[in-house]
Input
Amino acid sequence: MSNIETMSVNAIRVLAADAIQKANSGHPGLPLGCASIGYELWAKHMKHNPANPQWANRDRFILSGGHGSALLYSLLHLFGYGNLSKEDLAQFRQLDSLTPGHPEYGHTVGVEATTGPLGAGMGMAVGMAMAEAHLAARFNKEGYDVVDHYTFALGGDGCMMEGISSEAFSLAGTLGLSKLIILYDSNKISIEGDTDIAFTEDVQKRVEAFGFQTLVVEDGNNLEEIGKAIEAAKADKTRPSFITIKTKIGFGCPAKEGKASAHGEPLGVDNVTALKENLQWPSQEPFYVPDEVYAHYKEITDGLAKEEAEWNAMFAKYCEAYPEMKALWDEMHSDVDAQALLENEEFWKFEDKPEATRNLSGMVINRIKDIVPGFIGGAADLAPSTKTYMKDMGDFSKDNYGGRNLHFGVRELAMTAIGNGLMIHGGLRSFVSTFFVFSDYVKPMARLSALMGAPLSFVLTHDSIGVGEDGPTHEPIEQLAMLRAMPNFTVYRPADATETIAAWYYAVTSKKTPTALVLTRQNLPQLAGSSKEALKGGYVIADSTKETPDAILIASGSEVSLAISAKEELAKENIDVRVVSMPSMDVFEQQSKEYKEKVLPIECRKRVAIEALSDFGWGKYVGLDGAYVTMKSFGASAPANLLFEKFGFTTENVVNTVKGIL
Output
């Protein structure tokens, strides 16, 4: 390693240590241990241009060990991303800074994914590698490799312990994603001490069994050795690669190096001083970097810009030679035309017959795939049940990366992380699918979808005790309340065809919010009063003749028809009620105060919520004078019709509940 390279690597360490010390909070161990990895990769092997962080053909770098964010911020500063300044580094972990505790997608220029939950970055990296493979298959022509980039992910022992990494790597190996390169920071230290207390497996053999090329770098500070391993990874054209790089946590700090205490607490003022002395750093001044180091990084970035310039010239020739591909490229890298879709009569058509909303969703998916060329997705081994298979679109596989049907296997957690990776890569519009009850497995990565503003779509079927014979393990109860509680996450539980189409319209046109469609297994009738008003989240589907109704019935999904049936029975006893369909509380809450008051007038305090799931969350609409026809327990194993009767989802019970509050 030359002297200037030694200085450049140590600049990463010093900046990270100073940022964490000033904040008196953070994780110095990874940045100190992995500085050489970051420098070697970004300076010599990664295709990127700090002057244009959104260059479509850049290599992607994900710091899966997001607690080591100070490493990433130091790299972004030194490489000149988004003018991330020393002042920004000095605001590490402070309110409204560009350097939050964990990297946040869309907040700091150059951050490719929100990371923090360990292993999540590994799943998203697999999704990005799948996106690259798919786009390359669709766009590349002889002599024009317009999509040709790698996805790198750096993580440590914690990422390897979390099950999501195994789920994701298993699929990556099966698919032969050769543009995926995992960098494993192997320092054998976790928060509680030596990893041997809980983690003694041979990670290399496990990942090799998944179908990866495995490589080892014995010295995590040997730039040449790291570089050779990265190039060997790139040379394998049939397998993803996994590089174990043996590092020392807290490298360079005499009192902390190799110790668990280096992981998650500041080094301390005296130890930062000792670090700089040990690294022979020329100044003890916080955030000091010599001019020659900045000049060295500037020389590197000037070279990186040339690579994009060459690609731009090639892409311009490609667009001339293949104007139809240029048009497709532009369409796939643009938002869906919401107005055109709203006015598309074919999109909104349906047959007037009873149908399960999962079937109706399948119908809509097969319309969207012809309208939205970047539409891609699949299920966790459940496409025949969730009705998510796109006809004539082919299956994405090692032999056909151009297929648009994804087979995730029984891997809901990784599936959702991969879906996020597909979305934030650019150029694609993704959906994932499983049974609604297994949204418990989906939830941690759906939360990242919401945090990142990645409008991933979720098709969640078998939405209630209507699952029937499979019993309580497969019958969701509290899951709807769980998803409704998440910020920036929209849940739709449609009642019929019109509402299902509206839900998909909302999902596929959303720009910053993920959407879940919660769908029935059992057939539901098409409702006379349903309309595109479902796009407002809640609306009057069957009204009272009175200015102020005697009561208001509020329902979603399969229970809307039940509410309408109860309304008809109540009318026979001169009780005049309004029925409100509430397919999406989230969207209803976004409406004006005037609209909400029009649908749920404050004068009418007698209200009944009807939903074959938990009542949690309904209180804001029902109030103190209302009542609930909802689930108070887990379900049971029996035919669906018997379960609805057993748990009170009958016209008679709804009628009696209304009369009880009147």
Observations:
- The two ends are 83 Å apart (CA to CA).
- The longest helix spans residues 291-321.
- DSSP finds 25 helices and 20 strands in the chain.
